[in-house]
Design goal:
Elements lengths: L12 H7 L6 E6 L5 H15 L7 E5 L2 H14 L8 E3 H12 L11 H13 L13 E4 L7 H13 L5 E6 L13 H6 L3 H10 L3 E6 L17 H5 L5 H20 L10 H6 L7 E5 L2 H13 L5 E2 L8 E2 H8 L5 E3 H9 L9 H12 E2 L3 E3 H9 L15 E5 H4 L4 E7 L14 H12 L2 E8 L7 E3 L7 E4 L6 E5 L16 H11 L5 E6 L13 E5 L2 E5 L2 H12 L12 E14 L2 H6 L7 E8 L1 E5 L14
Parallel strand pairs: 1-5, 1-6, 2-3, 2-4, 4-5, 7-13, 7-14, 8-13, 14-15
Antiparallel strand pairs: 9-22, 10-12, 11-12, 16-17, 17-18, 18-24, 19-20, 19-22, 20-21, 22-23, 22-24
Helix pairs in contact: 1-2, 2-3, 4-5, 5-6, 10-18
């Protein structure tokens, strides 16, 4: 076998056994934490394209998280040759793409939930829609992170493999010890039944035709501290399906993992100058991993107070288009451009210094290719509008200090990890405790480091609550339960209907491009007291250094109204004048109707820049009980 890889990586015999399977093989691979799964899949894809001679379009690659998709895409771009045109997608992204391929004109998907799109895609598979798509029925399906396939996503993948079992092979990879998304199934008993359910379905459905492999050697952990939790993986993979038995075994494992974490060094109090300085080290990636986003927001507020630069890990479903794409499209009037022109335009952009030009070209061509090796720029705009840019283009830039929930850090790895000490089982506030999930979460957290693993004292979060009345946001309560003192910023809190500004929109775009940076502090200020409807607050402007750079979206105003209303009988009589202590997460490219940008003097490309917010905003109730209309909207 000859693989035409751009770089050489030594593989174990177990990895080579997976890589060398023929295109029509049905392979189930159990890959433990840090076991070289992504490298194995990279070589597997290269084998399928170079040795088995499948075309890239004949291979379908699906994964649960965008982090896993991006990691695989980066590895393929760096190591592979013939497999570089293979496209990896999340289950949610592929489901949307399949529905749009069936009917490019359908306009009913924007308001549907992710789960509903998955259900519609399953129905489309059953109707044989894939046979009529441009790519057709795949010859081989690669599915990563199958341990997180539960509910409707599991049913969609089962429908896909079952429908085309006679026409294609598959390579499915997972680790039951890292299954942490069972909470998507709301019923506790049904959730317990989902444990290993997909693995059991594959074994039952394909019987003797199925070939099973195990990757157990760890390549991530380079120190004894980083290997602390690895020994518990096998037990977590084999938790009983009976709920009572699983609870008992998971409780034992969780207690032992907590004890092991307790024996590791305490990183120290965040209020210490030495601790603050040691959080960011040259050429070292550090992650602080928390049980929930309330802890993330609390710690982020403290780090900002101490002046420690950091970033909050985005939601797995967050897909901001990078700002340089807007500037690229607005830099030319051409409808298509070639690769040489693409590189020349990128070189002239102020915000594209860190862009891997070769990789960006290949990624954009995957979704907006034009004849003769050119790029369709309007196709790029449509991809931004439809939120279907390749996942590798929407990845946040690397930062030396990341704050994240354990769920959002799954599939990632860091040089150094600080795990916020978990509570003993039975002491967590609110809801029915899922003990297997808690044990797996702690295992995932403790297997993220390459070198250093520390414990960190949990922050005080008595003020932080999760709103369960329609917004699903974290908020700050006051001294009494009904008081509301702050609200979490989310991805779509800035209006995307039109570019910011009332007069000189081009000046606002220049200000965003040259003056606004990730991590900058911003605030929302109420513009006037006239709400557009009885179910949302009045409008708020987004202010940076005293300048308005955007407006709060309708979604934010509705969520703020719901949070303040609290219950059906509650009358919302006033709104906070300001929402302070928010930060810029990033600048993103936003697409809309070309007539919109033409009408405000920004050209007819239909794409512009907008800020995206992060952090826990605090309400200012002390000023301006009444704000006259037009007070700040300038």
């Amino acid at each position: 076998m000859t693989l035409t890889l751009a770089a050489s990586v030594a593989l174990t015999e177990a990895q080579l056994d997976v890589v060398r399977q023929p295109w029509d093989a049905r392979a189930l691979v159990t890959a433990g934490a840090g076991a070289g799964k992504t490298t194995t899949l990279t070589y597997r894809l290269e084998h399928l394209t170079s040795v088995e001679e499948l075309e890239a379009r004949e291979i379908l690659v699906l994964s649960f998280s965008r982090a896993a998709v991006r990691e695989l895409r980066e590895r393929v771009d760096r190591l592979a040759h013939t497999a570089r045109r293979v496209r990896a997608q999340t289950f949610d992204g592929w489901a949307l793409a399949l529905l749009l391929q069936e009917d490019p004109q359908r306009n009913d998907l924007a308001g549907t939930t992710f789960d509903r799109r998955i259900e519609l895609a399953t129905e489309a598979i059953d109707r044989g829609v894939m046979e009529a798509t441009e790519a057709g029925v795949p010859a081989h399906v690669v599915i990563d992170e199958v341990q997180d396939l539960v509910g409707v996503r599991r049913e969609m993948v089962e429908a896909l493999l079952d429908e085309y079992a006679d026409d294609c092979g598959f390579t499915v990879v997972g680790d039951a010890a890292q299954a942490v998304y069972g909470f998507q199934v709301s019923d506790p008993d049904q959730r317990a039944g989902e444990t290993n359910r997909f693995f059991d379905w594959v074994r039952r459905s394909f019987g003797d035709d199925l070939r099973e492999f195990t990757l157990s050697e760890n390549f991530r952990a380079r120190t004894p501290e980083a290997r602390t939790a690895l020994a518990y993986g096998a037990a977590l993979q084999k938790l009983p399906q009976d709920r009572a038995e699983a609870d008992r075994e998971a409780g034992r494992i969780h207690a032992e993992l907590r004890a092991a974490l307790d024996r590791l060094p305490d990183f120290g109090p965040l209020g210490s100058d030495i601790v603050q300085k040691s959080l960011i080290l040259p050429d070292t990636s550090t992650a602080i991993l928390c049980r929930d986003n309330g802890q993330v927001l609390s710690l982020s507020g403290r780090l900002r107070k101490y002046g420690v630069d950091h970033r909050i890990q985005r939601s797995p479903r967050s897909r901001p288009a990078p700002a340089w794409i807007a500037d690229l499209l607005n830099a030319t009037d051409a409808g298509t451009i070639g690769e040489e022109r693409f590189h020349a335009l990128l070189a002239g952009l102020s915000n594209a210094d860190d862009v891997d030009e070769e990789r960006a070209w290949r990624s954009l061509r995957r979704i907006a290719a034009a004849p003769r090796n050119t790029l369709d720029l309007d196709g790029v705009r449509r991809a931004v509008l439809e939120v279907r840019l390749p996942d590798e283009l929407t990845a946040p830039p690397a930062h030396p200090l990341m704050l994240s929930t354990i769920h959002r850090a799954k599939g990632l790895e860091f040089d150094r990890v600080l795990v916020v000490e978990p509570q003993p089982l039975g002491e967590r506030r609110g809801g029915d405790e899922d003990r297997p999930a808690e044990a797996r979460l702690l295992y995932v957290a403790m297997t993220r480091p390459r070198d250093d693993l520390y414990r960190l004292e949990p922050p005080h979060t008595w003020q932080f609550r999760k709103d369960r009345n329609g917004t699903d946001r974290w908020y700050l309560r006051g001294r009494v339960d009904f008081a509301r003192n702050g609200i979490e910023a989310c991805d779509l809190d800035v209006d995307h209907a039109r570019p910011a500004g009332t007069d000189d929109h081009a000046a606002v775009q220049r200000y965003l491009r040259y003056q606004v940076r990730p991590g900058d502090e911003v605030e929302l200020i109420r513009l006037h007291d006239l709400p557009p409807s009885g179910h949302e607050t009045p409008p708020y402007g987004v202010f940076h250094g005293g300048r308005m750079i955007g407006q709060a979206s309708e979604r934010f105003r509705r969520d703020l109204w719901r949070l303040l209303k609290q219950n059906k009988g509650w009358q919302v009589r006033k709104w906070p004048y300001r929402v302070t202590e928010l930060q810029i997460d990033c600048l993103e490219a936003v697409a809309g109707d070309p007539a919109t940008t033409a009408g405000v003097g920004l050209g007819d490309r239909g794409i512009w820049l907008a800020p995206r917010l992060a952090g826990m905003g605090r309400f200012d109730w002390q000023h301006a009980e009444y704000v006259p209309e037009g007070h700040l909207a300038q």
